[in-house]
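Reviewer 2 asked us to include a model.

Predict the structure of this chain.
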Amino acid sequence: MRIVAVVGLSESGKTRLLAGLIAECKRRGLRTFAVKHCAHGFSLDLEGKDTWAYRQAGADGVAMVSPQDWAVVRKLTGGDDLAALAARAFPDADVVLIEGGKHARGVRKVEVLRSGVPGMVQTPPEELLAVVTDRGAPPGTAAPVFAPSQAFELCDLILSGGEGIMPEIKLEIDGKDIPLNPFVRTFIENTVLGMVTSLTGVGAAPKRVVLEIDRDAPAAESR
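Predicted model (structure tokens):
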């Protein structure tokens, strides 16, 4: 799974670039998902509607289902870890593209600069995957530079990199470390998190989960 954030100032062209990347990824047959980071919050619950009433009553989340689509809105606790949330929401994704999230930790970023919109590259060098601009290469930037029309070339770069940021998951069976591929890692993470986050007292995005299964342990005494 590749997870990349497209960042930049308002009106810099993030949405247009993201749409172009989505179209290019789909042309390549990739399962592609998009995430919109809303720094100032959002609401899908219109006042007076049923879902609004459920949230007002204290529901921790609501789901809306139609014959074609479904959506889930739930409270976010435990921090805004975009990479982990994207992996949980779209475990079968080949590519997840995030619009915004310039402060997201550990996410590779494509920064967009546009003529008429002042500002220089703000992304730390260790997180900067590429720069997209129509005003020439920014001075002092070592990352590759693309024009806004170069979605094909930028998509090549995104896909040439390693897997997106994923949680560390270790599997040990009878004292032997078992290597896990990205699909199995994501499946284990989503399955375990899906179960434990339904338990009372567990937040929506726990940072560390330890699960131990000991089949040789003495059975609990019946009471």
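The radius of gyration is 21 Å. The mean pLDDT is 80. We have added this to the supplementary material.
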